[in-house]
Amino acid sequence: MERELNQINVIPLVDVMLVLLVIVLTTATFITTGQIPVNLAKAEAASDRQETPVVITLKKENVLYINDQLCTKEQLIPLLLKYPRETVIVVRADRTIILERFVEVVDNVRGEGYDQVSLEVARL
Questions:
Q1: Is the pTM of this model over 0.70?
Q2: Is 51 domain-assigned?
Q3: For every one of its 124 residues, what pLDDT tens digit does the chain have, with 9 covering 90 and above?
């Protein structure tokens, strides 16, 4: 008995799509914006810069990092002075930190002559 094929068999298609979905989900977990987890604030408009900036990270536990290197408030400026004054500085601050800490860090950085200081935010 020969049976006429008048329908498409979707089971292999679903199998392939599920495998692709698993691959995408597993590789997406390895792609991160930074090594230090920070709960960033949200903004509708954010710029995408192409140059490699110096990243200063402020965590809510009063912990400070410069380019993923743990430092104290007193060590920040000496570590920052290794970079030229034209360097772009990006401050990643946890959304729950006290605003005064953020302003203090940005004020210290700008006081040393670094004019290109910006805040990293997550897109909505």
A1: no
A2: yes
A3: 566 777 888 888 899 999 999 888 877 766 654 456 667 777 776 665 556 889 999 988 888 999 888 998 899 999 999 999 888 999 988 888 888 888 888 898 999 999 888 888 776 5
Q: 């920052």: which residue's tokens? A: 80
Residue 32 lies in a domain: no
Q: Are 100 and 91 in contact (CB under 8 A)?
A: no
Domain count, the chain: 1
49 found inside a domain: yes
State which residues form the domain around 113. Answer: 42-123
Pick from 93, 86, 97: nearest CA to 61: 97
